[in-house]
Design brief:
Blueprint lengths: L7 H9 L8 E3 L2 E7 L7 H17 L3 E6 L7 H10 L5 E3 L24 H9 L4 H11 L1 E16 L6 H4 L3 E4 L3 H9 L3 E4 L5 H6 L5 E4 L1 H6 L8 E17 H5 L3 H35 L4 E4 L3 H18 L3 H9 L2
Parallel strand pairs: 2-3, 2-4, 6-7, 9-10
Antiparallel strand pairs: 1-2, 4-9, 5-8, 5-9
Length: about 325
């Protein structure tokens, strides 16, 4: 089965009519805010943003319109982030930290491989506001505010053949996110990491350009990666942090009571999104496996993998000025 490729050009066409104007528009006296998400209504990101909309309306208590552009209608997350930075076309959205690396070297580090021990540790880090220095840097340099933290998906490697040891994944051509820390850590355990666009992963595996990718259950399900890579090596190498982002330019133009509603709603919607994704992660994989679409493969060398990655993580944290953040995360019990 040939995968339909979501072309960025389609998003660019859709955006063309929006980018020439400020993102905030008046419609019958009410402010309109535009959001963007790569996925459909069932994805946890979409539901987190709908919760954000619901909460803003509740806390603001005045007429306001939201338009959420779904299914990559305005492109991909990297583009959403650029639009928010410009204050055009997109006012809010969920964006992977990897796409913020142009503005903040520390941003992609907040959900880097083997940063979190488990979901409990991950939640404690987010609740302790340890990531605030990163959020401050992104707001200062990119003009995009991180108003809440969604995510919670445990990432594994989907492959076109079963693999469950370090020896088996040696030299594996695997797609990774664009931030350098992903290539560094995957190379450290012997794989051959390749950076390609998210919407090209399916065809990349199908055509033999790569043999694998890595993602959480929601992404594997929504993008149907199991059709070309039905074996899921349970490396559990990362737990996602997916900030709910808001354009600082848009925010500054809003009334104070709406600003307060947005900040409160962002934090709560992020917590809602984390609960959704982390609770549904294993369930989605089980459903796919029962349907015969996916086969989970235990990964025997996860502890050894983490040990190989540790010095790379420590060195990279120091290199990008995130050493203090890294030490606080590691020390948090």
């Amino acid at each position: 089965m040939r995968r339909r490729t979501v072309l960025a050009g389609l998003g660019a066409t859709a955006v063309a009519s929006l980018t020439g104007f400020p993102a905030i528009v008046k419609a019958q006296g009410a402010i309109t805010l535009n959001g963007a998400v790569q996925f459909n209504d069932e994805h946890a990101f979409n539901r987190a943003l709908l919760k954000f909309e619901e909460l803003v309306k509740q806390y603001y208590g005045k007429p306001i319109n939201f338009v959420l552009h779904r299914n990559s209608a305005l492109g991909l997350e990297k583009q959403y982030f650029e639009y928010m930075a410009q204050g055009k076309a997109v006012d809010y959205g969920i964006v992977s930290p990897a796409h913020m690396s142009t503005f903040s070297k520390a941003a992609p580090f907040i959900d880097a491989p083997f940063l979190f021990r488990d979901l409990d540790h991950w939640n404690k880090v987010l609740d302790a506001d340890i990531l605030k220095p990163v959020a401050d840097e992104v707001a200062d340099k990119a003009g995009v505010m991180l108003i809440g933290y969604a995510g919670g998906g445990v990432r594994n490697i989907f492959i076109n053949k079963p693999m469950g040891t370090l020896a088996e994944i040696k030299g594996l051509k695997v797609r990774v996110q664009g931030a350098p820390i992903w290539s560094k850590t995957f190379a450290a355990v012997g794989m051959s990491p390749t950076v390609i666009a998210y919407n090209e992963v399916y065809n990349g595996i199908q055509n033999g350009v790569i043999s694998a990718g890595e993602n959480e259950a929601a992404g594997v399900e929504s993008m149907k990666f199991y059709e070309v890579a039905p074996h899921l090596a349970l490396t559990e190498h990362a737990i996602t942090v997916r900030p709910i982002c808001f354009s600082a330019k848009t925010y500054k133009a809003l009334p104070a009571d709406l600003q307060a509603a947005i900040m409160k709603a962002g934090k709560e919607a992020g917590a809602h999104g984390r609960k959704l994704e982390s609770s549904e992660d294993a369930q989605k994989l089980e459903t796919l496996e029962k349907a015969g679409k996916l086969k989970r493969v235990p990964f025997k060398d996860r502890a050894e993998m983490a040990k190989l990655v540790e010095p790379v993580m420590a060195a990279y944290a120091k290199e990008i000025g995130a050493d203090a953040i890294y030490q606080k995360i590691v020390a948090l019990k």
